[in-house]
Amino acid sequence: KLKSWYQTPKDKNIMFIIVGFDQNQMTVKLHVTEKGSNSIKAVDLDEEQFNNFLHQNSLFSLEDMY
Asked: How many Cα atoms occupy the beta-carbon half-sphere of 2 within 13 Å?
């Protein structure tokens, strides 16, 4: 669902919102933050990256997601 905040299944401290899709690049546009943080990062992920982000988010560093 667009424009709703979700917690990732593996880490409840990481929150994301789906802001849209890029049909040409086949990516999901997200805003990602950690609970209690004022910093929001905008990222574009393809299907495989999005699945990894949800279920293996230890592979991602929020600092690297710019």
From this structure: 5
Buried b (16+ CB within 10 A) or exposed e, 29-38: bbebbeeeee
Other CB atoms within a 10 A radius of the CB of residue 40 amount to 14
The DSSP secondary structure of the chain, one letter per residue, reads -TT-EEE-SS-TTEEEEEEEEETTTTEEEEEEEETT----EEEEEEHHHHHHHHH-GGG--GGG--
Percent of the chain with pLDDT over 70: 85
- At 17-60, the pLDDT tens digits run 999 999 999 999 999 999 998 999 999 999 999 998 898 866 56
pTM of the model: 0.81
